Amino acid sequence: MLSNIGVPGLILILVLALIIFGPKKLPEIGRAFGQTLREFKKSTRELTSDVMEELEDDNEKKVIK
User: Fold this and answer.
1) Structural domain boundaries enclosing 53
2) Is-contact 26 18, C-beta < 8 A?
3) Contacts with 21 (C-beta within 8 Å, 6 or more apart), sequence order
4) What is d(CA 53, CA 63) in angstroms, rounded to the nearest whole number?
5) CATH number, domain with residue 42
6) Is 53 exposed, middle or buried (0-12, 13-18, 19+ CB in 10 A)?
7) Total number of domains in the chain
């Protein structure tokens, strides 16, 4: 979905955001969005590592039996 936007679309979105939120609020919104993305990535990594650990444990149990 986001791959179809292109440079003109991104510029339009940035201009609209600047008009709607103003220059003072835009950095705050960007920081909040960045923190949200970081937390999402961290949660995804943790979930992936938990699943991989469980799979490895299951494989070890199967090998022992």
Assistant:
1) 2-64
2) yes
3) 29
4) 15
5) 1.20.5
6) exposed
7) 1
d(CA 13, CA 20): 10
**Identity (one letter) of the amino acid at 20?**
I
For the record, the structure tokens of 56 come out as: 């490895």
Q: Please give the model's pTM, rounded to 2 decimal places.
A: 0.59
51-65 tens-digit pLDDT:
999 888 887 777 776
Is 2's pLDDT higher than 60?
no
Residue with tokens 């995804």: 44
Contact between residue 21 and residue 29 where contact means Cβ atoms under 8 Å apart: yes
Answer yes or no: are the C-beta atoms of 42 and 50 closer than 8 Å: no
Residue 1 carries which DSSP code? -
